[in-house]
């Protein structure tokens, strides 16, 4: 794999810019060419046997796939024999709806990988297991008590959001609607969409309009995240929080979403006090709205712990680290590298 990419990188130098998906597909094709037996992640199902949903891909995704194919021909055609166009479209669709996002201990994006056997596990908004990573290997770990015969279920998406938002995401990315107990009961939707208490209740139309505004603000922030300056992004967060705050409670998930973005922007700007201010508003609602042993919760405790340490607040930092560790020991296992590094981090303080 290294030889394949090294040759291409040397040839293109500063013009080397394939997408992450293009690089993953190139690695898959190179491995298939030299692979003589099933790899450890294909004991049950081969990559070529994964569901592709190629017939369901919309125009926007089709254009992205065509761009990735163009990238394969541009950056790899001299060093890799590429299959025909139809087979490439199928493989790209398989990667798109079966890939796993690899993240660090604070859930910052590292890359994307394919584990066909793990991709067989069905989705639920009430997952019984979580997929984490140890080096190149994916590990499936229980996050709640299970009995023999219970189905192993993972979540394909971020579970913070209310039922309609979750199912919109599932339909867009995975082409199905979830019918788990949480989606049927919508038991957490009221808490996730909490509005401010007033002597005169807020009208339903006002709430619905603000939900539409919030979704639009989130889309706009996502689209501009890599083009605006940090100060401009923070201004966007603060403006949307001010608008939404007239209707939504601070624990409303749309408020939490923008606070999380603001926390990250403050961190980039080295505004540690600002990052802590937003993080402290997030962590309690996260603990209540996410399922037990969620890495989304542990990552906030980790971030807060590290910022507290930088602000010379060691007791608060250690307390946050301990709460993160309790979750991470379940999700990653007590001997995982992230836990070893965290223990060293705590011992130095």
From TrEMBL:
Entry EC number(s): 2.1.1.354
Q: Which domain of life is it from?
A: Eukaryota
**Listed GO biological process terms:** methylation
Q: What class of enzyme is it?
A: transferase
* Catalytic reaction list: L-lysyl(4)-[histone H3] + 3 S-adenosyl-L-methionine = N(6),N(6),N(6)-trimethyl-L-lysyl(4)-[histone H3] + 3 S-adenosyl-L-homocysteine + 3 H(+)
Stretch forming the signal peptide: none
The record ties this protein, via InterPro entries, to: H3K4_H4K5_MeTrfase, SET_dom, SET_dom_sf, TPR-like_helical_dom_sf
Provide the Gene Ontology terms for cellular component. nucleus
Q: Name one GO molecular function term.
A: histone H3K4 trimethyltransferase activity
Query: Per the record's keyword annotation, is Transcription included, yes or no?
Result: no
Keyword S-adenosyl-L-methionine part of the UniProt annotation: yes
Keywords, A to Z, come to:
Methyltransferase, S-adenosyl-L-methionine, Transferase
Residues annotated as domain SET:
1-157
Name the UniProt record assigns to this protein: [histone H3]-lysine(4) N-trimethyltransferase
Q: Which organism was this protein described from?
A: Scomber scombrus (Atlantic mackerel)
